[in-house]
Design a protein that fits this description.
With about 110 residues, the protein is mainly alpha-helical. Helix content is about 70%, strand content about 5%. A two-stranded antiparallel ribbon has the order 1-2. The protein starts with a helix and ends with a helix.
Amino acid sequence: MDTNRLKQFYILAQTENLREAATIIGISHSGLSKSIKVLERELNNQLIVQQGRGIKITEYGRDLSLKLPAFFEGLKLITNEIEQTSLKSLKIATFEVFSTYFMTNILA
């Protein structure tokens, strides 16, 4: 599941307007609509329903949108922790003979 679709849905749930949410996100109205349909298939649940010329967030969609801020915060914490613990660089000191004859094979 793509977290971008969850972010898109969250914005849509906040605005309850496809065009306004699409403008905020920076994609087309139809692109957002297709993205939400994909998310609905992935979740096997309906998130929005057509209501006249607009939309209405379903009960399932409303429950999901209330849980998303905590999800995004947790995702941010995990991402930050991974970035902080990731190996940024590796320095290896060797003797010239070792690095000339053996290190190239080891690194390959």
